[in-house]
Write a structure and sequence with these properties.
Layout (H helix, E strand, L loop, with lengths): L26 H15 L3 H24 L2 H4 L4 H20 L5 H14 L12 H10 L3 H13 L8 H27 L5 H5 L1 H22 L8 H22 L4 H20 L7 H23 L8 H25 L7 H9 L6 H6 L2 H9 L2 H36 L12
Subcellular location: Membrane
Protein name: Sodium/hydrogen exchanger 9B2-like isoform X4
Family: Belongs to the monovalent cation:proton antiporter 1 (CPA1) transporter (TC 2.A.36) family.
Length: about 425
């Protein structure tokens, strides 16, 4: 009888007599090992990986620019390179600040202030009713702070049974719309030339242009492209984004800058209503695309705003009056908000929480705070530059004062002041 080795198949059930390697791991073991290694090296890899991806993309853009252009324009001493350094440092500082429960924009803003006062980067602007400008600017609240905090509380079930988060978000949106429109109208009046009746008529014209353009472009984004288009998400993102960009720069080109922001808001609002009728909800893919874009523009935006704050020209008089002009109206607003909800179905604690939700200021102040200063540099008037610089300093101080305090109060007092609704307890506990 012939000798049969281990590797000869005797029947269909026979298998080679193999030994597994000493350090053999199957696929599930390797995945588990990789996850454990990531947790050991970087406990919050989900968050930090996004930061690494953004930084890597920025560095790739800079490397490509170095290959195409001379070092004079993209080298370490160029403005582009300094802006990239600002982006990376602002993003890192925002992540560090967020670990303490504060809005990331606070860290980004402080990094911009640091860059300016160590004289690493200074942005040169391109080629009195300033009190009214400051009023509209400080009256706005920050959706970038309020909405994430309220959504976190909503996810935990706090305030859901009475729709408190819906009330606060809707009211703050209307408030910001009025403030942005008023800010643009007053700014146009300040920097416009001509007779007084021409300046007064600019207000209604700005409103008409902003609403007309916003409605028209929003309807266009609703019908174009077709819902059967393969690239509908990309095309809608580009159409809405570039259309809003045209609204911002085009309104300035025709002399009605105040209509730009209004056109952007109305266009996005009209388009989102149309998309809901087609089956999309508020968490649609176009919104997610703009969230991704904001990850790039947020650190640069807040960093550049911080760069405008120069401690060398900062006076104690301006700081003290800036703090008072921020806190006193804020206290009056909270009192009025508390009184206006007395005859609703909210209890005392819920009324207090709604009043405190109006504290944070950041997004509108950062986006519009430097606009008067830019316009003042264009006309070259020394008094206008001085007043506009004061407006910017007060706007930055309002962000530093109210943004972290408001976020902390909302997150800490929400679980204590609001009723919690669980899936098996719709009445709340």
């Amino acid at each position: 009888m012939a000798h049969i080795t281990n590797f000869e198949v005797l029947d269909k059930q026979a298998v080679p007599n193999e030994r597994k390697p000493l350090f053999h791991m199957d696929k599930s073991d390797r995945n588990s090992f990789g996850s454990s290694l990531k947790k050991i090296i970087c406990p919050k890899w989900h968050t930090t990986s996004n930061l690494f991806a953004l930084v890597l993309l920025i560095l790739l853009v800079w490397a490509i620019s170095c290959s195409l252009f001379e070092l004079e324009y993209v080298g370490p001493s160029s403005q582009l390179f300094k802006l990239i350094v600002l982006f990376i440092c602002a993003k890192i500082s925002g992540c560090i600040v967020s670990l303490f429960g504060l809005p990331p924009m606070v860290g980004m803003l402080l990094m911009g202030v640091l860059f300016r006062n160590v004289e690493y980067l200074e942005v040169i602007p391109p080629y009195t009713t300033f009190t009214s400008v400051l009023r509209f600017l400080l009256a706005a609240v920050s959706p970038a702070v309020i909405i994430p905090c309220l959504f976190k509380l909503q996810g935990l079930g706090y305030g859901v049974n009475k729709g408190i988060h819906t009330l606060v978000i809707a009211a703050s949106t209307v408030n910001d719309l009025v403030c942005i429109v008023g800010f643009g109208i007053v700014l146009d009046v300040i920097f416009s030339s001509g007779p007084w009746y021409s300046q007064i008529s600019k207000g209604p014209i700005v409103l008409a242009i902003g609403f007309a353009y916003g409605i028209a472009w929003g309807v266009l984004c609703y019908f174009i492209p077709s819902t059967e288009n393969e690239y509908i998400v990309t095309l809608r993102t580009l159409l809405l984004g570039l259309g809003c960009l045209l609204s911002a720069v085009g309104s300035s080109a025709i002399g009605y800058a105040g209509a730009g922001a209004l056109g952007c808001i109305v266009a996005a609002f009209v388009a989102s209503i149309g998309w809901r009728r087609q089956g999309w909800d508020s968490n649609n893919p176009v919104r997610n695309n703009f969230i991704l874009l904001w990850k790039f523009f947020e650190p640069v935006s807040f960093g550049l705003i911080g760069i405008e704050v120069n401690f060398k020209i900062l006076e104690l008089y301006t700081v003290l009056w800036g703090i008072l002009s921020t806190l006193v109206p804020l206290m009056l607003r909270m009192i009025v908000s508390f009184l206006s909800t007395q005859y609703s179905n909210f209890n005392v604690k819920e009324n207090v929480f709604i009043a405190l939700s109006w504290i944070p200021k950041a997004t509108v102040q950062a986006a519009l705070g430097a606009t008067p200063l830019t316009n003042a540099y264009i006309i070259g008037d020394a008094n206008s530059i001085s007043y506009a610089n004061t407006v910017l300093i007060v706007a930055v101080m309002s962000i530093l004062l109210t943004s972290p305090i408001g976020a902390i109060l909302i997150m800490k007092l929400g679980p204590k002041f609001l009723q919690r609704t669980l899936p098996n307890n719709p009445q709340g506990i």
